[in-house]
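ESCALATION

Customer reports they have been waiting on this structure for their group meeting. Please prioritize. Original submission:
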Amino acid sequence: MKDAIAAEWLKFRTLRSNLYLLISALLAVALSAGVAFLVARGFDAQRGADLRRFDSLGDGLGTGLPFAYLVVGAMGAFSITTEYGTGHINTSLTAVPARHTFLLAKLPVLAAVSLVAGQVLVFGMYAATMAVLGARADTVLLDGQTLGASLSEPGVLAGLLITGASMPLVAFIGLGLGTAIRSTAGTLVALILVLLILPAAAQTLPRPLGSQIGAHLIGALPGQIAADGLLTPIAAGALLAAYTVAALAAAAVAIALRGRRLRPLLAGTAATILLVGVTPAAAAPTPDSELTWKPCDKMLCSEIRVPVDWADPQGRTITLPLAMLPHTGRRHRIGVLFSIPGGPGGSGVQDLERRAGSFAQIRDRFDVVSLLPRNGVELGVLDQNCLSTGPWITVPDDEREWAALARSNRAAAERCRAADPELFGHLDSVSFARDIDAIRSAMGERQFTFMATSYGGVPGLAYARLFPSRVRAMYLDGTVNPLRDKSEEDRTRYALMEAQFTRFSQWCANDSACALHGRDVGTVWNELRSAADRSPVPAEKGVAYSGFDITVAAMPDLVTPGADNARWKELAQAIRRAEKGDATGFSDYVKAATLGSLKTPSYVGMNMTHCLDGIRYRDYAEYRRLRALGERVAPHLYDSELWHPLGCVGWPEPVRKPTTPLPVDQLPPFVGAGTWTDYEDTADLALRVPGSGTIRYEGQGHGLYHTGDACTIAHANRYFIDLRVPPMNTVCRPES
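Update from on-call: job pushed to the front of the queue and completed.
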C-alpha cells in the first residue's frame, strides 16, 4: 500500500495540470473580493434603514467557494480520468493489480494536497472579503447577522476550518465521479452541474422551497456543520458524508473486477442509505402541540382554556385567543418568540396582525406567537364599554378629597366588577404569566424566547420570577419598571418628562410652525396651569379643565410628537387656545382618543390590572410625600406621575403582585431597549440581571420593535438568534 501511495504522489506532482489547477484556484479569492467590492459600493450608496436590509456576506465564502470546490473536485477527477484518457490505466493496474488498493492509494495524496490548498483558499477568501468591507463588516443587519463576520463571533473560525477540511471530501467526490464516468470532459460537466448550476437554480425557486433545496447541496453543508442552518450540524455532516460515500461507492463499483462488482456496490449503497437516513432524524424536531392552529387573516389562530383562578386549576376556565406568525422554513427553527403585549390589556393578536412586517426576518428562525390576554378589553367576558371608560381623576388637596376620590373610583370599579367578580379579581400580571406558561406547555416547548413591550414587561418579569429556567431570552422594549422604589421611580420619571418638555420648548424656539414661537414656552405653560387651577378653563358642555387636566391631556402629544412634529404643533395650538379661555383644543384630542369622553378618563380596563399589580399609593401620606417630590424636581410637570396611582385609590380588590426577589442568578442575560422617555426605566430593569445589555434609542417614541426601527430590530434579532447581548448603551438613532 505504501508503494502504491508513493506512486500516486509521484504521478500527482509530475502532472502539470494539477499545478495549473491549484494556481487557478486563486481566482476564488478574487471572486470573493470582487463581490465584497460591489456590495460595499451598494452599501455606501444607501442611507438609514436601507443599510440594515442588505444580505450578510458572512465569512465571505459565498461566491468564491463554489469555484474553489470545482477546482478541487476537478483535481480529484483528473487523478483518474487522465489515466483513462492516456491509456496509462492499464499500466497502473498492472503495477497495482488490486483495483480497490489502486483506488484507495489516491485518497491520501488527494486529502493532503486539497486540505492544505483548501485552508489557504478559505482563509484567503475570508481575509480578502473583510479587507474590502473594512468597518462596514460590523454593521448589524435585520436578519441578526453582521455584514461581514469577525473571527471572534461564535462559529466563524470553526466554520472556516470545517470548510477547509471539507475540500478533501469534494476531491473524493471528483475522484468517484471521474472513476465512474472515465471521461475528463464528462466529469467536469457533472461537477459543474452539481457544484455551480444546481445551487444557482435553487436560488431561483420560490421561498422557502429554494432555501430548503439549497441547504441540502454540497456547498451549503460545511457552514451548517459549524452552526445551525436549515439543517442541524449532525444532519449536515451526515449528508456531506453521504455524498462522499455515494461517489466512492460508485467508483468502487466501476473499477471492480467482473464478478466482484456487487460487493462494493452493496456496501456503498447501504452506507449511503444509512447516512442519508440520519439527516432527517438529526434535524431538530418541531415539538408536538396540543393546540390546533387554523389560518386567519394571514396568520394562524388558535385558543387555549386557562383557569380563572390559578390557585384552583380545576375550577372555572376562560378561553384566550392566540395568534401565530409561523416559521417560514428558510432556516433551522430555533423555537417560539412569544410577544407579550402592553397596555395593560393590549391585544397581542392585533400586534402580530398590524406589525407583521417587523417580524419578517425573525420568522426565518422562530414561530412568533401572542395572545389576547385575560385582561384584554376585547375579550368580551366583562363589559367592553365599562372597561373603556372611568372616572375623571382629581388631585386631592386633603383627606376629605382623598376619600371622595376613593368613593368615585370604587363605584366605577364595582360597576364593571358586577358582571364577573371572580374574573375581575384575577386580572393581575402574575395570572397572565401563568397563562403564558400554559401556552408554552401546550405547544410542547421547553423554553420561550420573550419580547415584552411597554406594560408587557410586568407579566414578563412575573414569568421570570415564577419560571426562570423556562426563559431562553428576554427582550424588554420600553417597559414599565415595577422593581424600583416608588420615590426613585417617580424621581426618574419626572426627570425624563421634564427633559421631554425642554425638547418641546426648544422646538418651539427654533420652528416658526409652533404656535408659541418667539415666546418662553415654560412660562406660558406654568402661567396657564396656575390660572386653570384658580379658574378651570371651559371646554364644552359645561366641562372645564384644571391645570392637572391640561397636563394629563397633553402628555401623549408631548411624549410622541409624530411625523413632522404634527402632534407638537397640535399641542402648541391647544395651549394658545387655552390661554384665551378655550380648552376645546385639549378636549377635541381626548374625544378622538377615547369613546367620546370630554376629559381623559382613568380607564377601569387599565386600573383592573394596575391596581392588582400594586401601581397605587399605600395611603394618603405616601401620596402627599410623592406629590411634594414632584413639585420639587419637576417645575413644569410636577403632577404628571400622579394619574395612574390615583386611579387605584379606593380599589375594591387587594394587591396580588409577587413579593419574592427576581432570581437573577437563574436567568439568562436580558436586553433592554428604550427611547428618550423610557430608556432609564428599561435599562434599570434589564441590568439587574448579570451580563445584560441595553439599546439606547436617541429619539422619540415608544415600542421600538413594533414601530419598525431597523437598528433596534437588528440588534434584538441578533440576540434572539445567537443570544449575543449588545454592549450596554449600544446606540441607535432615527434612520432618517
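Sent to customer with the following note: Residues 99-133 form the longest helix (35 residues).
Escalation resolved.
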